[in-house]
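Predict the assembly for these two chains.
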Amino acid sequence: MAEIVTLAEAIAAAVHDGDTVAMEGFTHLIPHAAGHEVIRQHRRGLTLVRMTPDVIYDQMIGAGCARKLVFSWAGNPGVGSLHRFRDAVENSWPGRLELEEHSHAGMANRYQAGASGLPFGVLRGYRGTSLAAQTSGVAEIVCPFTGEVLTAVSALRPDVAVIHAQRADRNGNVQYWGITGVQKEAVLASKRSVVTVEEVVEVLEPRPGAVVLPAWVVSYVACVPGGAHPSYALGYSQRDNAFYLAWDQISRDRGTFAAWLDEHVYGQGARVGAAC
Amino acid sequence: MLSYTADEMMTVTAARALRDGMTCFVGIGRPSEAANLARATHAPNLVLIYESGTIGAKPDGLPLSIGDGILAETADAVVSVPEIFNYWLQSGRIDVGFLGAAQLDRHGNINTTVIGDDYAEPAVRLPGAGGAPEIAAACKEVIVVLRQSRRTFAERVDFVTSVGFGTGPDSRPELGLTGGGPRQVITDLGVLRPDPKSFELVLAGIYPGVSIAQVNDNTGWDLAISPDLAEIAPPSGDELTALRELLASVPAAAS
């Protein structure tokens, strides 16, 4: 049953050195504040899993949290490269980063298999590409009914999933809507989960298209208004496109990146959500 | 005579390739510009589908990302990421997929992963696959949009991220790729289409003021020229106005 705690407590309890961590949110509802708390708590040796590593993992990779990245598209959407990610891959700075690379459809099916308690997912994909040769969790499989050759992808079973949602109730039931991405699958595939929310309410009013995660599949809920920034929470905030553009300059240089991290991550205490 | 840039000509040509009422799986960047231009001009009923799960999105300006709020707020339906790839793309329901590329070869195979021979020690690390491999595999047809140069039009791509026609006419059936593959490659110099027998890309259209020699100088292989090579009409005033209004609606991306 979900416990409602501070962000610092949630990360301390759920994310350990060496864990496999999936912080999901497909452009919308990216748990940036939780990522910053992982950096502040100096987690090391993490295997970071995410379809679109995006700015959140660029920051965590640059801060030295990651040993390995499992992903399908590592760019700054609409802007260009992730410079901290590239520096890690091309120059091993701040350390060597092992890659396990997939396509979006492959990652989505790997999460779905994990959520379903199956050892693999199946799709038409990867055949003829160079990806299959670089990635161990991809294999050909023959359909027992039609004989068609398909692709099996190994299930993802992270230690912990971290997501951001619009709201939770006092019992820890979680509700989110808009672009819902792959968060339900990530939470259900993982052993533990942390959900940051914009607000804690008495009653979850039904919303069209909303996903509800019952409290008994959630480990920790922390109230962190604005916790997705520079991503957004539909109905609460707008995507800060200017920050994504600015990140291109901040992250190009190791020095400006370190100064940004000092001021905006290490220099900030965890937001404990006193107002919630 | 209207003045316009080579990039504007490319985006206008890409928009013209879309017909009204089509369903179109759209990547961010130039594909999204072209698809939204088509919707703003000759194809108001074009169905835009973004990999964020937004089906039938009707943004009034250009989104910066595939997950901007305007896409969800204007969509006919918003579905999860596993659903968009499995139910909607893999099933073969989408008419046209629009892709960009860092490198492309004579059979329309695409690299968006690494530049350099060694995957583990790349000269340049690119973003990677995203949704492109399955878009390239499953859409009824694929349109690729990229600037043409010896660097981008390579004799051999360093990494096959998404399969075009593989090594020739037999590759797609052998690999079980259900979609039609790249039917048009639209560049800042002209338009290439696959030869119906060899499935090798040939120059089929050329922009006003561009010479065949210029196209050859910007191609890393011995490019075949279609006997029916046509000159493509320049952008109309309406097309240029609509494109410039769209581009003014999004913050300028860094390089």
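Chain A has two domains: 3-102+157-266, 120-154. The domain at 3-102+157-266 of chain A is CATH 3.40.1080.10 (Glutaconate Coenzyme A-transferase).
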